[in-house]
Amino acid sequence: MAIRKPFCVKDVLQRPIFQDAKLVAGRDGLERPVRWVHVLEVTDAAELLHGEELILTTGVGLGRDESLTFQYVRGLIDRGVSGLCIELGKYFPEVPEGLRSLADASRFPIIVFERPVRFIDITQDIHAHLINRHHDQLVELERISRQFLQLTLRPQGLRRILELLYRETGCPVRLQEEDGEVLVYPEDAEAEMAASASGTPEGTGPGQGEALDTEAAGAGEAAGESRGPRVFYQPILAMDTRVGELSVVVRGKPTEFLHLVLDRAATAIAQELLRRMSLEERRLRTTRRWMDDLLHRGVDHLPATAAKHLRPETALVVTAILPLPRGGAVEAATAPNPGSATPGTQAEEPGEALRDSLEGSPEDRLLLRAARILPRVFQNYGFTAWLSPVGNHWAVIAANTRATADSGGTKGTRNGGRPRGAVVSSTGTLVQESSELTGSRRAHTRPARDSFPSPPARDSDPARSLEPEVMMRVREALRELMRRLSSGNAGDGQEWVVGIGRIVFHPAKVSEAWRQATHALAAQMPSSGHPLGISSAIPGPRLLAASGSKSTASVAGQADNGQPRISFLSYDDLYTWQVFLQMDERALAEFVDGQIGSLLAHDRLHGTELVETARMFFACNQSKQQTAQALFIHRQTLYYRLEQISALLGDGWNQPPRRLALEVAIDAARFLAARSPGRGE
Fold this sequence. Notes:
Mean pLDDT: 76
Number of domains: 4
Low-confidence stretches: 199-211, 213-226, 330-358, 405-455, 528-560
Distance between the termini: 81 Å
Number of strands: 16
Strand order of the largest sheet: 1-5-4-3-2
Helix content: 40-55%
Shape: elongated
Structural class: alpha/beta
Largest sheet: 5 strands, mixed
Strand content: 5-15%
C-alpha cells in the first residue's frame, strides 16, 4: 500500500499542481522523503529547519550573488532538506550551472517553475495529502493492532504475532526473550539476520535499549544512497522492565510506518509475556504448596500432574540452590535450616513475595524466570522437574524419565560401581581416588562382619547403577539453567551455590533428601556469608582440608570462558562433614581441642605446619617418602616435624584407635575453620 511507503520528492512531482514543474538537478535524490512544505525567502534561516522539508522560494533573498546562492543551497543540504523549488523570474532568472553540479553531486533535487505559481496552493495541496496519509496510516495501524491483540489470546501467540509482523512489513523478524528463548520468522531467516547484523549502525545493537530511529538510522540514505539489509532492534518493555528484544531486517531506510508497526507489535508481545508471567506465578504458587508439604513434612498430597512422575522406583534428585549477586553475601542465619519447618506450621503464603513481581525485586523476577524455563531445560536432560522458593533459596525436585543403556552396575560398590570417595570427571571417567580409598587397601586385620551394627536401610537397588549417570545429568541441567538465567538482565553477575542430596526412589524420602541437600549447601556457606567455591570435580571437605579456609575463600566461584559461577557440592561428598553439620559446633570445638589442641597452639605460636603434616602423613598411609614429596619438604624436615608431633601428642599417636580420633579431629578443625574463617586453627 502507498501509505506504507514514505512520501518522496518523486511523489510530489506526480501531483497535478506540479505538472508544469521541471526537475533541473539532483535526479538521483528523488527518493528523499518529504514530511512538510515550507516557504523560505531568507538566506540565514537554515538553522530553523528540521530536515525533510520541501522548500519553496522565489529567490528574492538571493539576488544575483552566486556565492550567496551556493551558501544558501549548501545550508539546505546540510540540514537534510528534501528538495528546493524555485519560481524563476526577475529575482532568479535561471539556475547556475555550478549550482546544478552541486545538486547533482549531493543528490539534492532542484525543481523550477518557469511560470508564476501560487505557493499557497502548493502548501495546501501537499499538506492536505500528508494529513490524509497520516489518517490512513492510523486506520491501518489500528487494524493491525487489533490483530496483534487478538493473537495474544490464541495458542502460540508469539509465533503468530511474528508471522503477522512479517506479512505486514515484509521484514524477517526475530524475538529474543530475556530468558534466552529465540523465535525467528521465517524460520530460515536466521542466517540472513546474522549476516545483516554485521552492518548494524552503532547505537542500535542488541542489548543497548535503542528503539528503531527513522531519522538517525543511516543518514546517507536520506540522500538516496543504496545500502544493504540492516538489522534494527526494538526493546520489549513491560512496566519499565526489559523482557525481550525484537529485531528486524530492514532493506534500505526504515520508514516511520515500520517504526509504528514495530511499536504495536512490541506492545502486543509485552502483553503476551506478562500473561505468561501471571500464569507462571499462579503455577508457582500451586507448586509451592505441595512441595512445601513434601519437603518439610513428608506429606505427599500430590497433584495428578506430579504424582504420575513421582512414583516409587523412580530416581528422584533434590537440590537446594542459593542465588547470590556476584561478590555478594548472605548472613549465616539465612542459610537453609532443614529443621526449621515443623509439622503443623504454616509456611509463608505462596506467591506473597511474588505479587507485582515485575515491580518487585530482581530476586523475584529471577525466580519467575527460573520457574518458567526450568521444566524445559531439565526435560532436555531427561527429567521432569519442579521449582519452589524456600526462604531466600530455591528447592528443585527432578524425577528421572530417561532409561540408560548402561543399567548394569557393579555389585558391592556404591554409586554404580564407582568406589566410595573416587573423583569422577563430568564424562564419568575416574580421575582420582580418595585417600580413604587408598588407605583402605593397606594390609590390616578386618573384623568379622557381625561385629558391626547393620547400617540404616537405604533404598533398594532397582536403579542403583543409574546414580553416576543421573547425577551427571542433573549437574549438566543445573549448569544450563544457570547459564541461561545469568544471560538476562535479572541474572546478570549472578553466583550460585548448589547442594545436592542423595538419589532417592520414593516420594516419602524426598524430605530426607532435602535435608541432605540443605546440609550440602550449608557446608559451602561460612559465617561470612560468602560461598566457599567448592569445585564440582573434587569433594568439598577434601578441597578445604588441602587448601585451608583462606585459600578456599579466594577461589570461590571461579568461572571459565564466561560461564556462570557455580559452587556444587553433593551430600555424599561431605563424608565426615555429614556428621559435623548436625553437631553443636561448641561440642565439636571441644573435641578438636582435646585431640589436637596442642598442635594447633604450636602452629599459631611458632608458624609451623604440624597439623597439615599430620594430615598428610595419615593421607599417605604413614609413608614418609610420599609425605615429604606431597609437602614438598626434605625428609629430614619431615622427621623433625614428626618428632615434634610425637612430643606434643605422646607415643602411639599414629596407632589405632588414636589415629582415627586424630584424623576426625583434623577434619573437624578444617570444618570449623571453613565455617568461621576468622577462627584460627
